[in-house]
Design brief:
The structure holds two protein chains of two kinds. By secondary structure, chain A is mainly alpha-helical. Helices cover 76% and strands 0% of the residues of chain A. In chain A, helix 3 packs antiparallel against helix 6. Chain B has one domain. The chains are: A mainly alpha, B mainly alpha.
């Protein structure tokens, strides 16, 4: 009877997930490269030149997917951290720690590409726009999570403390976003807005979606590679690590 | 359980909370220099801005709310390690987790005591410092109200950071990295209230939002702090 049911928790232990992650990793790398090549091809050769912004707009194909991923990854990270806190599963917390650096990288990439885009388009590297400001604060939240986990030596305590911080952060992200937004409208700071962009050409949209998929696959691959390293590091005294084929060789 | 004993335990719960507040206040009074240092920090930081920017009154009036609020943020943050640090070091905190009174209540009492020592003096000092920036009496009143609503919020949110960094390497610097991003809404609405009042828009909206955030924090922050403390004491 129990054989017929799928065992959902089979891969919730590092011992079984480590080989699975190893098997999945090459696929996600291949997918990331494939989507990346397709996305770059569409965004450089297929997508038309923008009527107002010329060639410079093409940075959107990196900028927007990176921003999406930075926000999405924070929620995913907090969800894993929350699972780890609620069910006391080691692997969930390891996933959260593995995702954090990639999320921070995406937030940084989004800010950097935004600055590079802002200079030719708006004539300035930085404006105190609601989106830019909240993206910057998101980067701070990522860095706080990473710094807190790095400062605590006991991995279990680091996991739990990080989880509380991530959950508090998730509650705060919408509050921060709206407060920054209202602050911005009150100050009448930047008169530029990305939301009022004209309807996008089909090819541009495709380029953006393909690039988003590429970054998505890259994030999964990076998180899997990192979680494998974390598993080995934390479970180095466990029997299953000794029995790994690569350890015996 | 009979009615009288139930009432008895309820009474004792409140009595314990009052005792915790009284104890923390007494401890703060015995170590006056610690408390006063934070206050002087607030005064000095605020006084540095005119020296750095120049004595132009029109400019100073414009930056006053932001300067006072940022200084209040930093002063609160500096005093956060006092919140649980000593009790953690001498084992009092561990005893508190073992007591039959809910830890969340004790934590709330400690946060209240922290606000009375670190937050309330800032509220009382702010109008004096505001005069240095040539704020008119009306704006000073709004500044006080915004700080009165905002500083408890800072203590509550800061308590989470203080509990998370308890006994952690470089906790003092880390707590700033954790709590300052979370302080941003308080800063925006607090300083915004004064600015809105100066520009004639009325401070009501900002103050209401600040009060709403405070209500949220009163409910959730002790809970998160308690969870963080239990992790730190494991």
């Amino acid at each position: 009877m129990s054989n017929r049911l799928i065992n959902w928790f089979r891969f919730s232990s590092p011992q079984t997930f480590y080989p699975l992650a190893g098997k999945m990793l090459p696929w996600f790398i291949v997918l990331a490269i494939a989507f990346g090549i397709a996305g770059l091809w569409v965004s450089f050769f297929v997508a038309p030149v923008d009527a107002q912004q010329g060639q410079g707009y093409r940075i959107i194909f990196v900028h927007v997917p990176a921003s999406w991923m930075s926000m999405f990854l924070y929620v995913v990270m907090a969800a894993w951290a929350g699972f780890g806190l609620a069910f006391n599963t080691r692997l969930s917390s390891m996933m959260a720690s593995a995702i954090a650096p990639t999320g921070a990288l995406m937030a940084f990439l989004s800010l950097w590409s935004g600055a590079l885009w802002g200079k030719p388009m708006w004539g300035t590297w930085w404006v105190w726009d609601a989106r830019l400001t909240s993206e910057l604060i998101l980067l701070f939240l990522y860095l706080g999570f990473i710094a807190l986990q790095a400062a605590i030596d006991d991995p279990r305590r680091a996991d739990k403390a990080g989880a509380i911080l991530a959950l508090v952060g998730v509650v705060n992200v919408p509050i921060i976003y709206f407060s920054v937004k209202w602050w911005n409208t009150l100050h009448q700071g930047a008169s530029v807005s990305l939301t009022k962009s004209p309807s996008m050409a089909q090819a541009m949209l495709w380029g953006m979606l393909l690039m988003a998929l590429a970054l998505w696959m890259y994030s999964i691959a990076a998180a899997l590679a990192r979680v494998r390293a974390i598993m080995l590091e934390r479970e180095r005294h466990a029997g299953w690590v000794e029995e790994l084929p690569e350890m015996r060789a | 359980m009979s009615a009288t004993t139930q009432m008895g335990t309820q009474m004792s719960v409140i009595a314990v909370a009052i005792a915790v507040v009284r104890r923390d206040l007494l401890l703060a009074l015995r170590r006056k220099s610690e408390v006063l240092t934070t206050l002087f920090f607030f005064v000095i930081v605020v006084s540095l801005f005119p020296l750095g920017i120049g004595p132009e009154m029109s400019l100073l009036r414009k930056i006053a709310p932001g300067v006072l609020w940022v200084a209040a943020l930093l002063a609160t943050m500096l005093s956060l390690n006092r919140l649980f640090g000593a009790d953690y070091a001498d084992g009092t905190l561990e005893q508190m987790t073992l007591s039959p009174v809910p830890l969340g209540l004790l934590v709330s009492a400690k946060i209240l005591a922290h606000w009375l020592v670190a937050g309330l003096p800032l509220v009382l000092l702010a109008p004096v410092l505001g005069l240095q920036f040539d704020l008119d009496p009306r704006s000073l009143g709004v500044l006080m109200v915004s700080l009165l609503l905002g500083t408890p919020l800072l203590s509550l949110v800061g308590a989470i950071g203080a509990a998370l960094t308890l006994g952690v390497r470089g906790g003092g610097v880390l707590v700033s990295l954790l709590t300052l991003p979370l302080y941003i809404p308080a800063l925006i609405f607090g300083a915004g209230a004064v600015e809105a009042d100066i520009s004639g828009l009325g401070a009501g909206g900002h103050l209401s939002l600040l009060a709403a955030l405070l209500a949220l924090a009163v409910f959730f922050a002790p809970w998160a702090t308690t969870a963080a403390l239990r992790i730190a004491l494991e």
